[in-house]
Amino acid sequence: MGAQIPNNIFLIGLMGAGKTTVGKLIAKSLGKTFYDTDHVIEQRTGVKIPTIFELEGEEGFRKRETSTLEEFAQQDNVVLATGGGAIIAPENRAILKQYGYVIYLRANVNELYLRTRNDKNRPLLQNVDVKAKLEQLFHARNPLYTETANLIVDTGHQPVAVIIQKIENALHALESSCKP
Ligand SMILES: Nc1ncnc2c1ncn2[C@@H]1O[C@H](COP(=O)(O)OP(=O)(O)OP(=O)(O)O)[C@@H](O)[C@H]1O
Ligand SMILES: O=C(O)C1=C[C@@H](O)[C@@H](O)[C@H](O)C1
Ligand SMILES: [Mg+2]
């Protein structure tokens, strides 16, 4: 029996890597349902993420993130875009590895900076030197994204359509390499 395209696909990577943008398009092209843990948390609380950080601290947000991840990772036939910090907790990394095929969208700090510098909905990037903060996050998290991922796709300087094509090619190669 040959392997199929993985049932669930999880996207991980830093803020601005393109998880939401790429995730929606990949889900559409593979006929899967798209969810984004950040969006689910905002819908359920009725407030934006910076407000959750203000009211509950980062710790409160991380608790919501883990329970949302746990719930949505176990759904059927989904593409799930995760928050940039979803790989921090070992528990979350275990959930991602257990329930789906994990794709790390990797971009360099300069590219991430250009994509996120004017955004007001990312609390970790407010009132700080955005480039220095992204450097620090990249340094701390790149090993965690790398160890959690089944596939790494570079997204800096690459149009979204090219990224989608690369992911589809990798998934189809996976499918055919497992055929008898
Ligand atoms: N390959 C790309 N080339 C150019 N711009 C891109 C690319 N991918 C995403 N972008 C742009 O970068 C910004 C951030 O993308 P997106 O919101 O998808 O990132 P994210 O990984 O979901 O970030 P977060 O973790 O903060 O939710 C958006 O304005 C998006 O249009
Ligand atoms: O990188 C992070 O830690 C975050 C990324 C966003 O997706 C949100 O989940 C939140 O702003 C925290
Ligand atoms: Mg996003």
Could you give the order of the helices and strands?
A: EHEHHEHEHHEH
| Adjacency order of strands in the biggest sheet | 2-3-1-4-5
Percent range for β-strand residues? 5-15%
The CATH superfamily title: P-loop containing nucleotide triphosphate hydrolases
Number of strands: 5
Q: Residue-averaged pLDDT, rounded?
A: 95
> What number of domains?
1
- CATH class, anyone? Alpha Beta
Helix content: 55-70%
Radius of gyration: 16 Å
What brief labels describe this structure?
globular; binds (3R,4S,5R)-3,4,5-trihydroxycyclohex-1-ENE-1-carboxylic acid; Shikimate/glucono_kinase; single chain; 7 helices; binds adenosine-5'-triphosphate; Rossmann fold; alpha/beta; binds magnesium ion
Please render the helix and strand layout as text.
Elements: E1 9-12, H1 19-30, E2 33-36, H2 37-45, H3 49-73, E3 78-81, H4 90-99, E4 101-106, H5 109-116, H6 130-148, E5 151-154, H7 160-177
Parallel strand pairs: 1-3, 1-4, 2-3, 4-5
Helix pairs in contact: 1-7, 2-3, 3-4, 5-6
Bound molecules: adenosine-5'-triphosphate, (3R,4S,5R)-3,4,5-trihydroxycyclohex-1-ENE-1-carboxylic acid and magnesium ion.
Magnesium ion (MG) binds at residues 19-20, 36, 38, 81.
Binding site for Mg(2+): 20
Pfam family, one: SKI
GO molecular function: ATP binding; magnesium ion binding; shikimate kinase activity
